[in-house]
């Protein structure tokens, strides 16, 4: 935990003492990290002070990269992505895959507010999330083939030159589909991924792009079938989530 907090302070985040959730994300969280290729991705949730939510100023999220805004990090780089509890809940209610990962990751902090969130985890799980997972997976697979732009910090030319296509995008596309299928079928996302050995093989170019596309084609069908059979509610109960958010904020503010 000390190392993660050190990174947060280096990023000059102003509310370190208000963090309620903190973990290492990215490929390390999924179990698909490749030695000497990945940076450190730090994610977290904080409860801002009352004046930052009720007053004229606001800080709904905080993003920082040791490489700056124009280029991607190298293996020694650090990315920090922190959300206010309200912002994170908004994303989770929409079924955002990265936001839902927060519910199934470890936590370097012990905080009663996040414990309250986890005890109500089911509020954020719904069949409607399938659209988000499938959409993000489709975007990654289109990046893999060059059919779609390659992200705001440029395409991964080193991977394309070595393997002939963006193997990292391919890995993330398949990962998202596996996660979608599990969430709809089992009501959870296992982290690191059970199929991480396969994901690492994809990421290290052990499959031709046509083979990855065929795997994805099968998974797309399985995800849609899982959505049809899922016992999860059709959508998130936003009123219930709003009540949870209110409780968490008031309890946190009253304890300060």
Question: Can you put this structure into words, describing what you see?
Answer:
- With 256 residues, the protein is α+β, with helices and mostly antiparallel strands.
- It folds into two domains: 2-122, Beta Polymerase, domain 2; 129-229.
- Helix content is 52%, strand content 10%.
- The chain has a four-stranded mixed β-sheet.
- The radius of gyration is 19 Å and the shape is globular.
Topology:
Elements: H1 2-10, E1 19-24, H2 26-30, E2 40-46, H3 50-54, E3 61-65, E4 78-84, H4 85-93, H5 97-101, H6 112-119, H7 129-145, H8 157-163, H9 167-186, H10 196-203, H11 209-229, H12 238-255
Parallel strand pairs: 2-4
Antiparallel strand pairs: 1-2, 3-4
The biggest beta sheet is recorded as:
4 strands, mixed
**Domain module count:** 2
Pattern of helices and strands: HEHEHEEHHHHHHHHH
Low-confidence stretches: none
Q: Write down the Rg.
A: 19 Å
Which fold name fills CATH's third level, the topology of the largest domain?
Answer: Beta Polymerase, domain 2
Strand content: 5-15%
CATH superfamily of the largest domain: Beta Polymerase, domain 2
Terminal Cα span:
22 Å
* CATH class descriptor name of the largest domain: Alpha Beta
Mean pLDDT: 93
Shape descriptor reads: globular
């Amino acid at each position: 935990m000390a190392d993660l907090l050190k990174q947060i302070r280096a990023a000059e985040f102003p509310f370190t003492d208000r963090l309620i959730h903190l973990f290492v994300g990215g490929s390390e969280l999924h179990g698909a990290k490749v030695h000497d290729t990945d940076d450190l991705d730090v994610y977290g949730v904080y409860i801002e002070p009352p004046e930052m939510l009720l007053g004229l100023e606001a800080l709904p999220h905080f993003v920082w990269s040791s490489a700056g805004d124009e280029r991607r990090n190298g293996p020694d780089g650090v990315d920090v992505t922190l959300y206010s509890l309200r912002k994170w809940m908004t994303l989770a209610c929409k079924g955002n895959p990265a936001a839902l990962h927060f519910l199934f990751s470890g936590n370097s902090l012990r905080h009663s507010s996040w414990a309250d969130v986890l005890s109500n985890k089911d509020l954020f799980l719904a069949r409607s999330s399938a659209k988000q997972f499938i959409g993000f997976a489709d975007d990654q697979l289109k990046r893999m083939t060059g059919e779609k732009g390659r992200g705001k910090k440029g395409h991964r030319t080193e991977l394309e030159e070595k393997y002939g296509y963006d193997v990292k995008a391919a890995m993330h596309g398949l990962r998202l589909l596996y996660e979608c299928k599990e969430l709809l079928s089992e009501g959870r996302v296992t982290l690191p991924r059970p199929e991480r050995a396969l994901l690492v093989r994809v990421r290290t170019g052990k499959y031709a792009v046509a083979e990855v596309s065929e795997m994805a084609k099968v998974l797309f069908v399985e995800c849609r079938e899982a959505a049809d059979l899922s016992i999860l509610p059709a959508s998130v109960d936003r009123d219930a989530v709003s009540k949870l958010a209110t409780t968490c904020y008031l309890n946190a503010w009253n304890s300060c």
